Each structure stands twice: as C-alpha cells, then as structure tokens.
C-alpha cells in the first residue's frame, strides 16, 4: 500500500451528510472528494456560487453521491443560519462539519490596516464560531450526534511573523476545538482539529509562497521527511477523524506536516 491510496474501506462514511466550508477548492475539495468516495453526501459552501456549483457537478459526476452547493459567507451569521436550514431541509440530518474556510495573506504586521487584520480574523475565527454555534445548537436541540473537524495550523501554538492575524485566529479555533470537546461531549458531539503543513494547492500555496518564494522553497531542506504532502494523506486523516472509527478521539489536534514545525527545535 502507498500513502497516496485511500485508507478507509468502501462505505466507511455511508449515510453521513458532511458540511465543508470552503469546500469548492483546494484541500477542502480534496477532503470532500474522499468523503464522497467513502459513501458520504456533501454540502459545500463558499462565497463564490459559480465555482462551488462547478465543483459540485464535477464531484458528483466523478464520485456519485449528492453534493449540495450553497453560497455562504461564514462571517455573516444570518447567511450561516440560512445555509444550515437549507442543507437540513435538502439532505436531512447533518452528521459532521469540516470548518475549512480560511483567509490569509503575508504582510509585515505594521503594514496592516485594522480592517485587514480583522478581515482575516473574521473569516477564520468568527466564521468557525458562527458555523460551530449554528450546528451545535441544532444538534443539541434535536438530540443529534455530531462531529466537528477544524483546520488549524502549527503556528496556532508556535506563533508566526507575517501571518499574525491568521495565527491569532487559528489559536482561537484551536481553543474552541478543545473547549467544546469537553463541554459538548455530553451531547455526543466531538471536536478535533488537523494542523496541515505544506500541501500544494492553487490558492493558499501561491498566497503563502508568492512569486520567487515558491521557487526558493526546498522541501528537502525545510521538511524532515524531504517532501511536501499529498492531498490523499490529508484526506485519509480527515476521513478517519470524521468517521466513527475515531469515536474515542476528542479534543485532539493532529499535525500532518512531515515534522516541519519541529525542525527548528531539533537542529
Ligand atoms: C495587505 C491586504 C491584502 C494583502 C487584502 N488586504 N489583501 N492587506 N496585504 N495581501 C486588506 C485590504 O486592503 C482591506 O483593507 C482588507 O484587507 C480587506 O480586504 P478585502 O479584499 O476587502 O476583503 P475580502 O474580499 O473579504 O477578502 C478577504 C481576503 C482574501 C482574505 C483578503 O484574500 C480572501 O478572500 N481569501 C480567501 C482565500 C484565502 O485567503 N485562502 C488562503 C487560506 S490559507 P483596507 O484597509 O484597505 O480596507 C491558510 C493556510 C494557513 O489559511 C496555513 C499555512 C501553513
């Protein structure tokens, strides 16, 4: 078996309806495609309905299952509540939420306007809280089990220059993950997080390694295992944490970065 292969058996997510914010592109899309292959149905959201709808059509054609594309800016609680109601009306009970929507750019912090700082915090932290509150309240009221999986990053705990609003917001998302893992476990609601390292995508990759930086990025020097991640490796982890196989995993953050974040400490 190779690490580029799917890990879980066919049907491992049969009957599950999973919401993925920011599910139209990049890693959100890759994780969604694997969930579909495993038998799940999806609700994917983002601000761009044209991109979403195209993704939904392509996904359904390739992998079957149902993919519902719903426009939603996660910063706006009214839009989140409307999206959640539509998703439930269309697909019935939703079993899992992958909080994947993010916004980020590199900038010296002293160059940021207050609005620029707040924009990133709002997409990442407020957006995740909005979706989590909406889903959690619904699940608790209707006595439904649920699973949250939140995408963070290792600089949520190490901190990082030049992406400070993102670091601040991701630290908040990690705190939310751990706090609700304790508070909401009694309602059969689990919360976990994944901290992905370098996985090439069109969007985030070009934003975080713009221009010449991408040419200078040498995985052999930066990452102990000597390579970047394959999307399937992340999808395998996400599917495990979203599935019932991980029923006893709660409040955990799993880093998948080839050891990148520890490299500075170890050398
Ligand atoms: C400085 C910037 C900027 C930049 C925008 N702003 N881009 N400031 N450098 N590169 C400022 C604007 O001037 C404005 O401030 C404020 O931010 C809001 O900008 P808008 O364009 O109006 O905001 P909006 O349309 O909401 O767009 C949000 C966004 C955008 C974050 C700026 O890039 C976006 O929508 N991104 C979504 C996708 C994304 O970023 N994905 C990457 C996630 S990767 P003023 O003062 O002028 O009003 C990720 C991985 C992390 O998170 C892990 C890494 C290992």
TrEMBL record:
SUPFAM superfamilies listed in its UniProt record: NAD(P)-binding Rossmann-fold domains (SSF51735)
- Which GO terms fall under biological process for this protein? fatty acid catabolic process
Record-linked InterPro entries: DECR2-like, NAD(P)-bd_dom_sf, SDR_fam
Entry keywords, A to Z: NADP, Oxidoreductase
Q: Which domain of life is it from?
A: Bacteria
Q: Which Pfam families match?
A: adh_short_C2 (PF13561)
Coiled-coil residues are: none
Q: Name one GO molecular function term.
A: 2,4-dienoyl-CoA reductase (NADPH) activity
Give a yes or no for keyword Kinase in this entry.
no
Question: What name does this protein carry?
Answer: SDR family oxidoreductase
């Amino acid at each position: 078996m190779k690490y580029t292969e799917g890990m879980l058996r066919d049907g491992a997510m049969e009957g599950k309806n999973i919401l993925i914010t920011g599910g139209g592109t990049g890693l959100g899309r890759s994780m969604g495609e694997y969930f579909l292959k495993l038998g799940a149905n999806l609700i994917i959201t983002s601000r761009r309905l044209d991109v979403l709808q195209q993704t939904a059509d392509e996904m359904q054609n390739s992998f079957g299952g149902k993919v519902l594309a719903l426009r939603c800016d996660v910063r706006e609680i009214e839009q989140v509540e409307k999206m959640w109601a539509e998703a439930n009306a269309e697909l019935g009970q939703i079993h899992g939420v992958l909080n994947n929507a993010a916004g980020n750019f590199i900038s010296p912090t002293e160059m940021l306007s207050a609005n620029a700082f707040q924009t990133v915090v709002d997409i990442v932290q407020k957006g995740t809280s909005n979706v989590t509150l909406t889903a959690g309240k619904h699940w608790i009221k209707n006595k439904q089990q649920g699973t949250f999986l939140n995408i963070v990053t290792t600089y949520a705990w190490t901190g990082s220059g030049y992406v400070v609003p993102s670091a601040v917001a991701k630290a908040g998302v990690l705190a939310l993950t751990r706090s609700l893992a304790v508070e909401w476990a009694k309602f059969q609601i689990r919360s976990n997080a994944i901290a992905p390292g370098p996985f090439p995508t069109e969007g985030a990759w070009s934003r975080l390694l713009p221009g010449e930086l991408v040419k200078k990025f040498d995985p052999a020097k930066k990452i102990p295992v000597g390579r970047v991640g394959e999307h399937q490796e992340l999808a395998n982890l996400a599917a495990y944490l979203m599935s019932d196989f991980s029923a006893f995993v709660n409040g955990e953050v799993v880093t998948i970065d080839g050891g990148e974040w520890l490299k500075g400490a170890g050398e």
